[in-house]
Amino acid sequence: MIGSPDVVAFAKEDEYGQTSPDLWPLPEEFSVPLYPLADSNPWAKTSYAKFTKDFILISEFSEQVGPQPLLTIPDDPKVCGTFDLNYFSLRIMSVDYQASFVGHPPGTGYPRLSFVEDSRVVLGDSKEGAFAYVHHLTLYDLEARGFVRPFCMAYVAADEKKIMLQFQELSLRFSQASECLKAGNRRAFAKELQRKLRDLEYTHSVLQREEGLQREAGPQSMYSAHAVEKANELANVEKSIFEHRDLLKQISSYHRRPRRDPHAVTCQKCVDECLSECEELLNKYAKIAYPCGYGEKAGKGEGHPRGQGEDDDEEEEGVKRKLSYTPQLIKAKSAKCFDKRLKTLQELCDKTFYEATVELLKETERSFRGDLCYLYTRRLDKALQRKQRVTTFLFEEDLNDDDEDELGTLRPFCAVNHAVDNYVLLNPPPIVLAPEPHELDALERPEHLDPASETSITLESELGLGESHLESSPSDQTLETQESSEETKGSFSSDKSGVGLAEIQQSLVSMKSEAPDPDPDSDLTPDPNHNLERESSSEEMETTAGEDEGENGGDQTPMSLLEVVSELEANREEECEGVSGSELLVPIDTACCMVQEGFLYEASAPEAVPHLCQNSHLQPSQTLVVNQEPQALLPLQDDYTVGSPCSESPATGLELPSGLLGDAVSRTSAEDGSDCTMSASTGSDQTASPLGYGALVTLRQRKKAGQGALRFVRQYPFAIQALWCLLSGRTLVVLGADEGRVRRLVAALALFVPAPGKCGERVQAWLSCPFTLTDLQRWKLIGLQRVASPLGSSMLYSLSRYSRYISILDADHKTLRCPPYRGQLLANIADHRTYIRRGSTYFLHLQSTLCHLAAKAFLFTFTHHLHLPVSSTEGLEVVESRRRCFLQEQLGLSEEDSQILLYLSQLITQQYLQPTGSSAAAPSFSFNYTTSILYKI
Amino acid sequence: MEAVIGRCIHWGHERMDMVSNNTLKSPVLCIGEEQPKNCFTELQVLKGHFDIVRFLVQIDDFRCASAGDDGLVLVWNVETGERLQELRGHSQQITAITTITCKNEVTLNTSLITASSDRSLSLWDPDTGNRVQTISDLHSSVKCLLVLERLCVWLSGGEELCVWNRDFQLQCQRPNHSDTGITALIELPKNYIAAAMDKKIMIYSLTVSADSSVSVAEIRCLSDHQDQIRALINVNDGFFASGSHMGELILWNATEWNLLAYEHILWEESQAYNQTEIRMGAPKPSEMSIQHLTTNGNLILAAVGSGLYVYSIQTRSVVAYRKVAHDSNVLHTMLLSDSELMSCSEDGSVRMWEIQDLPLPAEPASSGFFGMWSFGRSNKQSGPPSKKVIDIPNIRMLELTGDLIGHSGAVQMFVSFKEKGLVTCSADHLLILWKNGERQSRLRSLALFQKLEERGGL
Q1: Where is the composition biased (Acidic residues) (chain A) (predicted)?
Q2: Does B44 contact A922 at a Cβ distance shorter than 8 Å?
Q3: Which among A247, A363, A918, B240 would be 20 to 30 A from A141, CA to CA?
Q4: Same domain for A59 and A198
């Protein structure tokens, strides 16, 4: 792991290190203050937050009760702690910009649906210690005022900077979620309209019939009060029908309308589906354009009350459900606003869409776990890893290959899971974690100088807070800095509902530029309308955040906006001239890294849980002993369980004593490095199996294994020899009677297996049959059951027979039989007097050492003259001696250490020659003939 | 921390009892894991067979074919370990396989002839995997094949001796009187053929008349062997040799067909040893059966029971021997040079030996000896076991230089591709390709830099 904290901490420039301008300067987040002030607690800023970790809050502005929280993700009351969700909902809903006009605009006969784009705001409450990215959206509800229901989704964190710097990513993910919700909502809304129309038409027909009866009754009653009332009612219903039909038309034209929101994410398939559905509806109701025409029809179909609806229903897919619906008479007067029950969010959206959204948000929450430094490191790490494919397979966890084929292309998204080819690929926003002064200067200055470029100003005064506004760019993204005597709020709004011609054009342009262009370098070659804005807005966020810090809490000093601006500019100039490097982030393609973080956390863990329970019921009846774990056969991975409380009989091949799992789990929360500052408990995802090889090996599992590895190193004085065996490619057999112990050891030692494979294919955690040469070739680390039976003796026979190829770690007698190792290379990862106490720390330490090794192996592998003669006259001995010289003198490796490098080099070579490993030839297995010695504690 | 040096694994009470009795009864021949002279430091396991793999033939300098009881013939690329062809057609086990080379045009074209228990013979093209010719419904299954390139014919031996031309047309046929049929065929000078059947060696003459019809005539019957003949080989132009089940090794004149030397290899059995032995007291015939003979023209290497026996043709005497070279019967041997040899055995290992001069003080002759002249049971090993030993002052030692362990069943056969490696086949259905790790690593590096160049960078 390239960016492990070990490296970071020591790489910080000290006072002597000024001389060399670093090409890869350390971002500010990583810097360790040289002389920390005695009273300054680096976590002070977040320490008074009333919640323990970040969460996502969905709130709505209910027309009946005002702002109210709906749900949180994760849906765990512990997450929010004492944090007042109601109050916070009030806060976040109050900054809604949506001053859009609803109802009858002048000059039109029918109510208009307002097509409002989402808006994105960052706001903070320093008193509460909460900062939030707030994503406002509106959903349609026929019964709501103006047909709209305002909602918002907020990512709430204690660290303002985290939100600021992750704005683009947050915005992207929430846009996805929002689009998903809205798509579902449109569908539901159309259905509701349809139902309403049917009701209205039914009512209409009834009224018409009544009127007809009256007309027949005679002219005298034509003008009676009753008749007039009926006529009015009829007219009202007719009007209502027209209105609703128009609404239906409007909602179906939703997709034809240009999107102004540059961040809008759409799935083409969903759009098409929606469109066709709406078309269908439209066609259907266009038929009954004239009430009299309908009347005829209704007259015909008098016998059955559903009338017209039925014929059409049969054409629809959801026939069954709709058939059961009986049109109802619509009362002339609608119910009072406060009498009716408002639809819930689930009702407002189609069920599938709602669930997909929640899933998406959950994933978002997962991927943003941990503090900024951690996220940033991960991202850097991955970006670098991607460039190091030649060696990353050795020790790094697997990056999901499927998702990164096209660099810079966002993982095609549709929450409802449509086929991949339907997606509009979009260009992910560049993640700018630190300002880029040069570009910004060019961008920002003219805007500030030229007030004419400001197109509109949004005012926010709902709560009467002091406010001031800055239109930072001609874009639709606005930086708003609100100051009050007590709070500082950085508020960042990205959209407005105000419709200006210029803006529409602009958004059209940005749509064009956005949709089909998966160019990963777009942040380097900015699109004039689009990307620049993004960068500039990111910049704004960054500086705002910086500002707050600079003010030492920042909440006491009210500062006028102009001051802020001028200060920002001054800062920038300063940066340009002087500290050219230190604040700069080298533009790397980190954007693409962000997508898959969710996977890395819990690739398959949640699925494993129910299966575990299920299996535990089955197992007592199953007496068969599975001898080998179904390695690499992913569909089969559920066939074994890791510890179930039900059956503890040791004979049942693959079980782990239940205590073990619990043990491991309880340890994890303390060890888990991913949530360094914020997490005390990580909730339900703890169920991830500690030894889940056979499935994708996740980082989390590897970190857990780090603890085991650390324990191994501290416990066994011959750990260094064992590690050397693994690293030099000699198969290590862990022999033991107790499955749990063996599995734990194997899981810990698996960290040291070079190129373990995506699913740990080269590790066999538990084997209870004699192994063959092929097994040795396939597995580099084997957990072997020691049994006292004929089978056991044949196993021991195979052990002794193949003893030249293997090292044997006897977990019961605590012995290790392997060739002697006298090198120094591994001393720092196998020091049993190490001061490292935490597994995750050890894991990172280990990763940095292994990374170092991999780098050396890379160098060795690709240095031509170390392997091949330079000239034709040169003999093999010359090359050989040159190689030895390189290894021993230049790399300073002893004989045994060289073997590690040779083995790694061999792996790299093989990987390079056959990246897929799908060669027709059998894999080769290298070894050497050396005497083993037996180590005892 | 305490390091204990030990060559064998100590598992407390769990000794490896499974190790065959042979190991326990005889002084364990253990070279240990330090084998500096063993250059085979890389292996590839070749899978594909479903039953015992019994035969390996070299097709050219990079291909070999394997055949076994599953009736399959597989063609392998020895350099890469790839399976090139799968020759399917025989329904029963393969009993004999040989290559036949046609130089019709400019190119040398090597084909494979296989014989199977399903009483058929097939000709295969190893390049395409096609069965070019096939003959089925033979009267009996063929046990051995002999190709006479010079005469453009080939012979099959079984219960009858048949001569075929290249187009698989039967040229002539000669029924056999013995029950066991012909088990081995060799070519002798002047168009003569020697065929081993049971205890006799028949000499046939092959005459090709003007109309290119071939006839076979029985010339002589050599019946000096007391037991069934197990091995029959050509030594050089002047000699051929045969070995029998009871350990008789006879060197024959190839032109006169007379007996030149008779050696009865009978491992000396110490009585005391026999008594402790759980098995029967008398040496089992299989312990002195000559399983395999091989020669390089100067030396004859005989696999006798689980031992090895090197016989010099010039001195007509034993050069070196090892009574217990393997834990079980030796199945195949090879002389790599005048001093290096290799053997494989039912115990699943391949061993490499070096013929070394004895250290000057006369080595106390080891427990084994050959008993033609000395049936004396001499427990006293340093004593004068026989005059023969004294007669042969230049007896040397067979020193184990390395072993290859990988197969879990009897190693049936091996073929050496010189520096490209060694292919072994075994009863565990596997073939193993043993290679020199350094050479392979060099080749891989070469390939790496070639690919790097092709790609123009990483």
Answers
A1: 538-552
A2: yes
A3: A363
A4: no
